[in-house]
Amino acid sequence: MTDDPSEKTFCEFFAGIGLVDEALRRSGWHCRYANDIDAKKRQMYEGHYGPSPHYHEGDVWQVDQVLARIPGRPFLATASFPCTDMSLAGKRRGLAGEQSGSLFGFLQVIEQLGDRRPRALLLENVPGFLTSHDGEDFATAIHALAELGYWVDSFVIDAQWFVPQSRPRMFLVGYQSELLTPPLVVRAADVELGAVDDPWQKAIDRADRLRPARLRGAMETIEPATGWATIDCGNPRRSPQSISDVIDFGDDQPWWNQTEVDRHSAMMFDRHSRQVELLRAHGGPPLALTAFRRVREGKQRMEVRFDGVAGCLRTPRGGSAKQIVLAIVDGELRMRWMTPREYARLQGAGDYALPTNTIQALFGFGDAVCVPVIEWIDRHMLTPVFEGSKRGVRSQRSGAINCPAAVT
Ligand SMILES: C[S@@+](CC[C@H](N)C(=O)[O-])C[C@H]1O[C@@H](n2cnc3c(N)ncnc32)[C@H](O)[C@@H]1O
Known about the structure:
By secondary structure, the chain is an alpha/beta fold. 31% of the residues lie in helices and 19% in strands. The protein folds into 2 domains: 9-239 and 368-391, 3-Layer(aba) Sandwich (Rossmann fold), CATH 3.40.50.150; 249-338, no CATH class. Strand 2 (30-36), helix 2 and strand 3 (55-57) form a beta-alpha-beta unit. This is DNA (cytosine-5-)-methyltransferase.
């Protein structure tokens, strides 16, 4: 059994088109095993990375088959498990739903790995995970990680801090006790909540954008059998990029004809039409906006965003999930569907090798993680913890672990 803790190895569960890998490989992580049930996602993955024998196309619930294909002991396992049941569209069945409940398949694999259990885990889902079943699903996941020996952390990152796409996502990280060396700090059991000299509390307070009030409340009330652990990494900086930076304005783009532009213009709310007219009159460099079609009070509407970011990319199930681009070039208003290349850029993977099938590409990217978000988590949490583990200094569980200088 290979068990070399000095290697940055990981397994990517719910791998889809492999954007977790896209982020982690940039700092030297090696994917030893990837798993997803969807043949079309695998096709995209291999179209981009080339033949990938480590990609196991299969159901995570086929635990024996999964276990047999994982080589050695990976340092890290990631799981961006399906969010379908965390949303209204999925009737908010939460972890009881067939899709989102596949988290338990993943946890069963982790449990049965025994002494090959990864030292760290990274889970990703939508913020609705925190509120699903009035917080019970989130608490269940935290306790399940703790039962497997992981100290836990949780935070929310919005992709729009890195790219012009609004995409808030919730993360859970788990660290085995053997990783509890600097830079990790743990919430001490004997320190009163909110104590000013508690390093864990200080780290949580400094990164206030990562943990909205409701999440902080949950972290204060849930008591995992292990404990909470975090890194004093502060808040991410905001990206100065705007949606106009990722949109193609050329005449070669699939712009709609005037009839289609007029039809969609008629779907705009009056206040949106007035704003568009002001922007057309203003002149200046080419400008892009994005919109979704929605049914509002029985009428088909086109809701336009004016805040310089695209709405959250989704899988194109139905017309309302596809994003529309509005471009103002020399005072002319143009419209079209957003292209797969623009989806890729909005996920921070602008160079990804695209399949010829547009719907396949939109499905792949609509479901994927945003690469710079995972890169940030890696730079500030995963790699520092990996480096810390190599130094191998075991921490005290008292919470009095020295914090290194905060990184930004
Ligand atoms: C949110 S997406 C993850 C996308 C991925 N992180 C990426 O960057 O492309 C969830 C993935 O879980 C996969 N999935 C759903 N149920 C599964 C199961 N039972 N076993 C394995 N994969 C499953 C879906 O096919 C989908 O690709």
